[in-house]
Design brief:
222 residues; five-stranded parallel sheet; two-stranded antiparallel sheet; 9 helices; 7 strands; 14% strand; binds BIS(adenosine)-5'-pentaphosphate
Length: 222
C-alpha cells in the first residue's frame, strides 16, 4: 500500500512519515527534501526550484513530475510526502501508478490552520537526515543539537512568518482541491487523520489505518 500524505505546511506529514519509515519499512519520498538536496548540490533542478521555494510558491509541475517518475520505479511501498500538490500532478501520478500497476491511498492530515504558523516557526531540522524537532512540542534533548548525530540543527529559510503565509495561501488555492479529487464518490481513495492531536496520537491513528481497519482489501478506504 502506497500512501500519499496530503495536508498543509506544518500538518505533521514529515514527522509521521519518518515514524512509519522506521516502524513499517516504508520509504519516505519527500519532494521538499529532494528539492532541498538538489539546491544544496546546485543541480539544474535545484537552481530552477530555488526562487519558487524561497518565496513559498510551488515549483512548476513539469519539473516535479520529471523528478518523481524514476522515484516510483523502485520496489517497496512509499509514502509520498508533499506530492502531488496540484490536480495536474495528481493526474500525472495516477498515470504513473497505472503504468506501474501500483495503488495509493491519500491520507489527509486534518488540522486547524491556526496552529500551523506556531508549529513551523518553532521547527528545527537536522539537514542531513530531514529529522525535525519543535521547541514547543518535540524539543531535542540538547537545544539546537540533533539527538542522533549530535550535529547542529537549522531553521528552514521558508519558515519565516511572511513566507509561511504565502505557503498556506498556495495550499488553499492549489493543493486543497486534491481533497475532492481523492474523495470522489465514484472512486474514493481518501482517509483522514486528526492531525491536531499530539504527535503520538496521530501515529496511533495511522498505525490503525495501516493495520487495515481503515483500508479495505483492494486498498480503498473502508
Ligand atoms: P515541503 O518541504 O514539502 O514543505 P511543506 O509541505 O510546506 O510541509 P512542511 O515540511 O513544512 O510540513 P510537514 O507537514 O511535513 O510538517 P512537519 O512534520 O515538519 O515543501 C517545501 C517547498 O518545496 C514548497 O513550498 C514548494 O516550493 C516546494 N515543493 C515541494 N513539493 C512540491 C510539489 N509537489 N510541487 C511543487 N513544489 C513543491 O511538522 C512541522 C512542525 O510541527 C515540526 O516542528 C513538528 O515537530 C511539529 N509537529 C508535527 N506534528 C505535530 C503535532 N501533531 N502536534 C504538535 N506539533 C507537531
Amino acid at each position: 500500500m502506497n500512501l500519499i500524505f496530503l495536508g498543509p505546511p506544518g500538518a505533521g506529514k514529515g514527522t509521521q512519515a519518518k515514524v512509519l519509515e522506521e516502524r513499517f519499512g516504508y520509504r519516505q519520498v519527500s519532494t521538499g527534501d529532494i528539492l532541498r538536496a538538489n539546491r544544496r548540490d546546485k543541480t539544474p533542478v535545484g537552481l530552477e526550484a530555488q526562487s519558487y521555494m524561497d518565496r513559498g510558491a510551488l515549483v512548476p509541475d513539469d519539473v516535479i513530475i520529471r523528478m518523481m517518475e524514476p522515484v516510483l520505479d523502485a520496489a517497496g511501498n512509499v509514502i509520498l510526502d508533499g506530492f502531488p500538490r496540484t490536480v495536474a500532478q495528481a493526474q500525472a501520478l495516477d498515470d504513473l501508478l497505472r503504468r506501474k500497476t501500483k495503488f495509493a491511498v491519500a491520507v489527509l492530515f486534518d488540522v486547524d490552520p491556526d496552529v500551523l504558523t506556531e508549529r513551523l516557526t518553532a521547527r528545527w531540522t537536522h539537514e542531513a537526515s530531514g529529522r525535525t524537532y519543535n521547541t514547543i512540542h518535540k524539543p531535542p534533548k540538547v537545544p539546537g543539537v540533533d539527538d542522533v548525530t549530535g550535529e547542529p540543527l537549522m531553521q528552514r529559510p521558508d519558515d519565516k512568518e511572511e513566507t509561511i503565509r504565502t505557503r498556506l495561501a498556495v495550499y488553499d488555492d492549489q493543493t486543497a482541491p486534491l481533497i475532492a479529487y481523492y474523495d470522489d464518490p465514484s472512486d474514493p481513495r481518501l482517509v483522514r487523520v486528526d492531525a491536531l492531536a499530539p504527535i503520538e496520537s496521530v501515529t496511533e491513528q495511522l498505525v490503525r489505518l495501516i493495520k487495515s481497519d481503515g483500508f479495505s482489501r483492494n486498498g480503498a478506504p473502508a
